[in-house]
Every structure is written in C-alpha cells, then in structure tokens.
Amino acid sequence: MRYMLLICSDDKNAAPAPRAEMEAIVQGHRRFSEELQAAGKVVVGERLRPEGEASRVRIKAGQRQVMDGPFAETKEALGGFYLIECDTKQEAVEWAKKIPLREGGFVEVRPIWHM
Q1: 3-state DSSP helix/strand/coil % of the chain, to nearest 5
Q2: Is residue 92 within 8 Å of 74, Cβ to Cβ?
Q3: Is 32 helix (H, G, I), strand (E, B) or coil?
Q4: Which of 11, 31, 68, 114 has the smallest set of CB atoms within 10 Å of its CB?
C-alpha cells in the first residue's frame, strides 16, 4: 500500500531556520532518502517551493476561482512530501518518525486510495 508522508509546520510565519540548522535538516533528508531507497520503499519525494508561488483552484458559487498564494487563511505550511510503499500503516509511521523536522514541524501519514 502507498502512503503519503506530508511534511508540515505549525506556523508558516515562523522565522526561517538559521543556515546551519537548515543545512543539517537538508543533510538529514538526504540520508533519509538514501535509507528509503536502499529499503525499496520510496516512490518519490520532493521539497515544495514557497506558498507564495502556489495557486489554488476552487469552486465557489458554482464558479471555478483561481487564487495565487500566499494563502492568509491557513496557519500551517506544507513543505514537502514522500510517497512510499509500505505493508502497513505502522510501518509508514515508523518511517515518518525518522524524517528530520524543526521545532513545530510534523509529518502527516496518509494512506493513498488506488484509483
């Protein structure tokens, strides 16, 4: 079964990480990605560009509307994801526990419905 590991932060307005901390997190993600690949679990994983470069398409009053970021109504920020293959949700959670995070960061583990 496939699981999406969504890497998030509680506060999208938090101060950027100091350079040394950010470098350590990036190196941690490289090691994590290598471990996932060696275990044959990774499908894909990517870091997302800032919310200010995003757009949303939504239906409102029956019409499709496009809104460019940043999106003031959300407090949390989505920073990246891994799509992995695991036998159980618990296995996916164990992988999620290994993802490098800053204080206030979290990983949401979501099973994927096969279409």
Answers
A1: 25, 35, 35
A2: no
A3: helix
A4: 114
Each domain of the chain, given as residue ranges in start order, spans: 2-111
| Bond from prior residue into 16 cis (ω within 30 degrees of 0) | no
Neighbouring CB atoms inside 10 A of 99's CB total 19
Q: Are 73 and 60 in contact (CB under 8 A)?
A: no
Report the C-alpha dihedral over residues 5, 6, 7, 11, rounded to 10 degrees: -150
Architecture of the 2-111 domain = 2-Layer Sandwich (3.30)
* Side-chain-side CA neighbours of residue 73 (13 Å): 3
Residue 55 CB: number of other CB atoms within 10 A?
9
